[in-house]
Amino acid sequence: MDYKPIIEAQRKYFESNTTIPYTFRIAQLKKLLSIIKQYEPQLIQALHADLHKSEFEAFGTETGVVTTELNYYLRDLKKWMRPKRLRTPVFHFIASTYIQKIPYGNTLIIAPWNYPFLLTMRPLIGAMAAGNTAIIKPSENAPATAAVIEEMINKNFDPAYLYVANTDASGSKLLLAEKFDYIFFTGGAGIGKIVYQAAAEHLTPVTLELGGKNPCIVDETANLDVTAGRITWGKFGNSGQTCVAPDYLLVHESIKSALVEKIIAVIKKCYGENVIDSPDYARIINQNHFNRIVALLKDTTILFGGDVNASQKFIAPTLLEINSLQAPVMQEEIFGPLLPIITYKNMDEVYKIIAAHPNPLVLYLFSKNKKLAHEIAENVKSGDMTVNEAVLHFGNLFLPVGGIGSSGMGKSQGKYSFDTFSHNKSVMYKKFNPELQVRYPPYGKNKLKQLKWLFKYVFYR
Fold first, then answer.
1. Among 10, 11, 57, 435, which is most buried by a count of CB atoms within 10 Å?
2. Active site residue 270
């Protein structure tokens, strides 16, 4: 498909200033909220078809999060749009300075398949609230959800404002060849590099929400009952296909056996003895990912789980002991229900293992040691950090989330998505009088003396 006409139509629509007023933005967000509520039954069905998500999980991690975030925007958008007044130095005399939030313009949103509704809508809400137009590219790997999103948007919004390009990788390539004013990408680092390279051709700013091997440290002071429950929920929800899920455990040697026993008990309690029969356990998205995850079992010892069913794309929650840090499962982000467990004696070992991998998207620590938590927060590089919890920070609308280095760039979630899609325009408004004559030539020693005095006593007072 040729996307040029739609992109050009969106460019003209944005240039008409239609999207700028608060009244337009708030009306479109209310409309989107109404449409989502109307389509929620279809979305629940689609998420089950794509990922075998239960209604509880589909609502709790996708549709419910999105509608909650929309209500947050409806409440606070007017406040966010107001100019932010700044301090003005005395040197500038009668002047005022402020930051004006302005939209970038025409945006492209490329969404992933693991949370195909949530991670499509979240950036879209931010783009709309900031006053942009958007072309949305949902993941072809979650076709049922993508089809519902396409119908929701394309049947209810002017394509010159919002348009869903329900296409495959070849369509993404065509879109990336065009010039946009902002690109928001969520997905793997490999495709993220392609997006970044394409954006560089037009000097287009980007947000990249990628992934990484997220370490989860459990020290000897942790409450193991609570820790086991939260790790199990965070790791095995959505069958491990969560970019912020714990990727591997670093467990103090004194508590390893006890923690493993408790995690196994929680898995059985949550999903039953035969996990494949649980209505609450998701499936791997497709056969390619299923095969990739199964291959990661090489050079590991299975402590629990390991059951697979190719026809159902089912992989059971699996606990692994690592025979070597060079094992395949430690060389890439797992993005599946395999949980490697590595023991340590002291924190120096922990820091070396984490440093041997690219910067994680999030680092987890389960500990009662506040000093250790502060030490890790200050000294270990990661996109975000959570202490004594797993994954739930991704639902805290007041907390910006995002990676660093190979795990991504930019922050989003809640107001921070609005900020991401807004350019901070610095504005200084000054009156004609009084006028400071010292700045004009000819200069000479006397004016230099005056200038030095101004630098010392006036400029930033």
1. 10
2. no
Q: Which residue has the higher pLDDT, 292 or 212?
A: 292
Per annotation, catalytic residue among 40, 69, 216, 243: 243
Reading the block at residue 101, the tokens are 């939030």
Token pair 């590099």: residue:
193
pLDDT tens profile 35-65: 999 999 999 999 999 999 999 999 999 999 9
Q: Are residues 389 and 357 in the same domain?
A: yes
Same domain as 276, residue 202: no
Catalytic residue among 209, 253, 261, 378: 209
Domain count, the chain: 2
In a shared domain, residues 66 and 195: yes
Q: What is the pLDDT of residues 214-235, one digit of tens each?
A: 999 999 999 999 999 999 999 9
Q: Mention every residue, 6+ apart, whose C-beta is less than 8 A from residue 283.
A: 51, 52, 239, 312, 313, 314
- Alpha-carbon gap, residue 178 to 200, rounded angstroms: 12
Q: How far apart are CA 376 and CA 370, in angstroms?
A: 10
Domain end marker among 210, 230, 251: 210
What CATH code is carried by the domain that includes residue 65?
A: 3.40.605.10
Is 243 annotated in the active site?
A: yes
Predicted local confidence at residue 437, as pLDDT? 85
What value does the mean pLDDT take over residues 418-431? Answer: 95
Q: pTM score, two decimals?
A: 0.95
Q: Is the dihedral of CA 66, 67, 70, 72 positive or negative?
A: negative
Average pLDDT over residues 265-277: 97
Measured from the Cβ of residue 295, the count of other Cβ atoms closer than 10 Å reads: 10
Q: Which single residue is written with the structure tokens 């499936």?
A: 283
Place of tokens 């975000």: 384
Query: Which sign, positive or negative, has the C-alpha torsion 159, 163, 167, 173?
Result: positive
Residue 90: pLDDT over 80? no
